[in-house]
Predict the 3D structure of the following.
Amino acid sequence: MKNVQRKAKKSRKTGETDIALEINLDGSGIHKLDAQIPFFEHMLSHVCKHSLIDIDLMLRGDLLIDCHHSVEDTAILFGSLLHETLGDKSGINRYGHFTLTMDETLTTVSLDLGGRYNFTYRGPDAVKEGKFGIYDAELSLEFLQKFAMNAKMNLHVLVHYGDNRHHIHESIFKALGRALRMGISMDSRMRGVPSTKGMLE
């Protein structure tokens, strides 16, 4: 049973970024993304489409330096909003996982929204190599780590194999969306919090 409205918005302004973000966990994947980082917007659109989370993002950052602060601070805000909108987590599935194929690439993302942080990546080191436009490839792992940390969740990403860098990144974000969709969904048979402790952080 829902005990909170599963949508919220928040802003974050520092000397490096100015961000306004709104999410709706019970949406249909609608996304309005204005981050001035085309590849980052492309990856976030996959999260929205496959999680069915609506996201409205306005991001301005110190892109003359690089994209690091913009991506990191967005992850911080997105993670904290996800944690906030889940409330006490009554009735949710809590766990989510998905194995996604994208051409020659196979990726599995598994998560637990149980209130404890862990991020583990296993896969090709190529995920950290090169650029996509102005976006440094290494920022995908930075985003995932900070997102998991602020959402207070376990997040495990395993790229079983893959050669094309774009496919590797895209498969991760699509699989993340699908795993989130499972984890945040309400289970009509679940009574209370999905934990034998009777509470989740």
Summary: The radius of gyration is 16 Å. Residues 7-184 form a domain with the Ribosomal Protein S5; domain 2 fold (CATH 3.30.230.40). The chain has one domain: 7-184. The chain has a mean pLDDT of 94.
